[in-house]
Design a protein that fits this description.
This protein has 182 residues and is α/β, with parallel strands linked by helices. The protein has a single domain (14-26, 34-72, 79-174), classed as Rossmann fold (3-Layer(aba) Sandwich). Helices cover 21% and strands 29% of the residues. The protein has a six-stranded mixed beta sheet with strand order 4-3-2-5-6-7, sandwiched between helices. β2 (38-44), α2 (48-57) and β3 form a beta-alpha-beta unit. The longest helix has 18 residues, at 15-32. The structure holds inosinic acid (IMP) and magnesium ion (MG). Magnesium ion is lined by residues 46, 72, 160.
Length: 182
């Protein structure tokens, strides 16, 4: 069976709902950062679609930087060790930094990246996520959450299963089938 079989996916959040929510968060960001410049630090690869849409919707001057974080890699849903790359070369001193990730699950990725970015002494440091599963009891929660969802595995709009499905325009619940156990 193809890994792109439609039978494995149920639409959870449509492309239109995502775009509506982005328009709303942009209004909020433009108010919160009025007259200021921001540096968006995107966590690759999951934030790719969100950042692409965000920077085309926002009217604030913004610079985009990227770092890489991976905890699942090619292993599907089995979490591996968190690896973060690319922070060393960033100059964030005295900048308004907005950290953008695809999903806040255990919160471990955002927490660790947030700690590392704080050491760069930015003027301000906030975080924005597309989705939150609300399962984390970490004190450090994202400042902006586009959608809160139930604790199910999702794909699309940047989110992957074994590196596939990132290009889907909406967000889909991933259903287990005989071809996708792991
Ligand atoms: P955390 O460190 O547990 O918060 O996990 C964050 C990372 O795990 C995200 O940036 C995603 O790459 C990945 N992840 C967590 N839940 C899902 C999911 O439902 N689908 C796809 N990737 C996920
Ligand atoms: Mg991933």
């Amino acid at each position: 069976m193809s890994i792109y079989s439609a039978l494995e996916l149920d639409l959870l959040i449509s492309m239109d709902e995502i775009q509506d929510k982005i328009a709303k968060v942009v209004v909020q960001l433009e108010t919160d950062y009025k007259g200021q410049e921001i540096v968006i630090v995107m966590i690759m690869k999951g934030a790719i679609c969100l950042v692409a849409d965000l920077i085309r919707a926002i009217s604030l001057p913004c610079v985009v930087e990227s770092i890489q974080a991976s905890s699942y890699g090619a292993h599907g849903k089995t979490r591996g060790n968190l690896q973060i790359k690319g922070i060393e070369s960033l100059d964030l001193f005295s900048k308004n930094v907005l950290l953008v990730d695809d999903i806040f699950d255990s919160g471990n990725t955002l927490f660790q990246v947030h700690q590392a970015l704080a050491e760069k002494k930015p003027k301000s440091l906030k975080s924005l996520v597309l989705l939150s599963k609300n399962v984390s009891d970490l004190e450090c929660q994202p400042d902006y959450i586009l959608f809160s969802i139930e604790n199910r595995f999702v794909v699309g709009y940047g989110l992957d299963y074994k590196e596939y499905y990132r290009g889907l325009k909406g967000i889909y619940l991933f259903k287990e089938t005989a071809s996708s156990l792991q």
